[in-house]
From TrEMBL:
GO CC entries: membrane
Transport among keywords: yes
The name this protein goes by in its record: Mitochondrial carrier domain protein
Natural source organism: Nannochloropsis gaditana
InterPro entries: MCP_dom_sf, MCP_transmembrane
Localization, UniProt: Membrane
Amino acid sequence: MTFDISNLGQTTWEDLDMNKLLIFSTLATLVENSIMWPMWAMKTRQQVQTGAVTHSLSVRRMGGLRSLYKGFLFYAIASLPAYLTYIGTYTYTKSALSTPSADGPVETSKGSFPLTMAPMAAGIMADAACLILYIPVEIVAQRLQLPTRYSGVQQVLTDMWREDGLRTFYRGFGATLVTSCIASGVWWQTYESLKSFFTMATTFPPPPLEIVSPSSAPTSSTSSSLFSVELVLDQVSELFAAIRQSLPHMIAGLFAGGLSALATNPLDVAKTRLQTQHTKPGPLTFIRSLNTIIQQEGLWQSFLRGFAPKLVSSAPLGMLSSVMYEGILFMSRKDNPMLGGNTTGRENASDKEM
């Protein structure tokens, strides 16, 4: 078996090496968050504050562009378990739901689930699985992003605990569950559908590139090194070729990000204000928050608040996420010789024994 670019976009759960998946998912998550964090900060401030002028002044008052990275280090580290849970749950669930039924209709999975809806179901399940880990991190990060008196994470945690104890860290859980699950379901369903469409509509035959496992190459003190220069260069070359092949994925991710942002922005506005308030929430707070926003600011203006930075971040983020996700799966395959992958070597060894 060889590790080549034809596997891009076709990797299933059974093809993955869990150690590689953990490593590459972590690296990709850190890179993605560092790129998109300023836009997320701007979106949060604009959704909570009233008026673009106020928002612009707050950025300048807090220290300019540097202030947009306030709270990033905490978020980047604390959110990793949630992101890894999300990626693993989606990949496993989609692979399970996408397995055709042996004796049932062709368009259904083993569990009699429609194959065409597998991405949406997997996206919703992945989001629901990671929210218990993600929501406290998001709330703390949002408060750090705002132009408030908070000087650091410890002060935020102390104030939140004084407000309502542990419940403060899960404030707006229902709102977040609804908003995030809808966004995730819409994103993945749109992405997977458009990916298939654009892949069929474009003709980019994969170049005949192959990376030979180090075990099948001539043995020497240099070539047997796990991180030999030749192997790394070959991997980089293969990765760039994969990016060229991933153009349909990038276009699909761009559209998916924009559509999910449009579908969930009204809910996101109410959720963000609910999570950043400093009073104990009452009954039906999420519904009441929606009604209050509409009454005070009008339907159109309130529901589009923060949409511009959200769209500017969500559409490119969708494109970036598609490349990252497909790249993670591609690099995490068991037949990838990097980081100890040695499928070819094992097959050759078994052939010799026979």
